[in-house]
Amino acid sequence: MGDTVNNEGAQKKNFFQGLKTEFKKIVWPDQETVTKQTIAVLAVSIALGLIIAILDLIIKFGLSFIL
User: Fold this and answer.
1) Which residues cross the membrane (predicted)?
2) Buried-exposed string 13-46: b where 16+ CB fall within 10 A, e elsewhere
3) pTM of the predicted structure, to 2 decimals
4) Among 10-19, 20-29, 47-56, 58-67, whose mean pLDDT is lowest?
């Protein structure tokens, strides 16, 4: 069999250096943006939950009326 070179240590080092470099490129949002987006997600989730609940009640009433 041929001789193989174990570059595992070098590969891990390069991976973590690349990871560190990529993390430096991230632009994190400010607190105001995060707060606005969180409120928007909560509002849409609550609205969607209410719409589903109302549709469920309408369908349940309709089925009980038919049956």
Assistant:
1) 39-59
2) eeeeeeeeeeeeeeeeeeeeeeeeeeeeeeeeee
3) 0.60
4) 10-19
Least confident of 1-15, 22-36, 44-58: 1-15
d(CA 42, CA 39): 5
Distance CA 67, CA 63 (A): 6
25 has pLDDT over 90:
yes
| Cβ partners under 8 Å of residue 37, min gap 6 | 29
Angle at 16 between CA 10 and CA 19, to 5 degrees: 140
Rg of the chain over Cα atoms, rounded to whole angstroms, equals 27
